[in-house]
Amino acid sequence: MNQIFTFALLFGSFFCFGQQQNQEIEKPIRNLFIAMKNADPELLKTTFSETAVLQTITKDGVKNENINDFITSISKYSKGDLDERIVIEAIHTDGNLASVFTPYSFYFKGKFSHCGANSFQLVKQNGEWKIQYLIDTRRKENCKEIK
């Protein structure tokens, strides 16, 4: 009986630790989309590391985007104009590195615009997870809207 109790306690502790770690990893990702939806450049800045890379896969290849230009462009919209809805499908970690994959649906001023997937690489710096690398796809066909 003691072995069952010990196993249940260890399993429960491991499960709770894993959930807490995942919430910490998800925080900058969720804040990124909250900041976009609220057109909040200050919150947006907190989600990225100082050396973050932002890219999009296009029909012509990979397009690099400047993080500061991205932040400035978001601040030009009104609250509620940009609404990217995600589903976190997978989180993988190794020490201070995390990889997160999120399919998404993007809505502009309340209307469905496009869909795709985001691939995030996060690093833990000074006890906080930050987005180091983000690459996404964008398409208008074969979309499953995320409500």
Account of the 3D structure:
This protein has 147 residues and is α+β, with helices and mostly antiparallel strands. It has one domain: Nuclear Transport Factor 2, Chain: A. The protein contains 3 helices and 7 strands. Strands 1, 2, 3, 4, 5, 6 and 7 form a 7-stranded mixed beta sheet that branches. A hairpin with a 2-residue loop joins strand 1 and strand 2. The longest helix is centred in the first third of the chain and has 37 residues. The chain starts with a helix and ends in a 10-residue tail after the last strand. This is Lumazine-binding protein. It comes from Chryseobacterium geocarposphaerae. It holds the Pfam family Lumazine_bd_2.
Overall geometry comes to globular
How is the CATH topology named?
Answer: Nuclear Transport Factor 2, Chain: A
List the uncertain runs. Answer: 7-11, 13-17
Q: What's the β-strand tally?
A: 7
Alpha-carbon distance between the termini? Answer: 46 Å
Instruction: Count the domains.
Output: 1
- Give the fraction of residues assigned to helices: 25-40%
Indicate the radius of gyration in whole angstroms.
18 Å
User: So how many helices?
Assistant: 3
Would you list the SSEs in sequence order as H and E?
HHEEHEEEEE
CATH class: Alpha Beta
Quaternary organisation: single chain
Assign the CATH architecture.
Roll
Mean residue pLDDT? 90
- What's the story with the biggest beta sheet? 7 strands, mixed
Strand content: 35-45%
User: Which structural class do the helices and strands define?
Assistant: alpha+beta
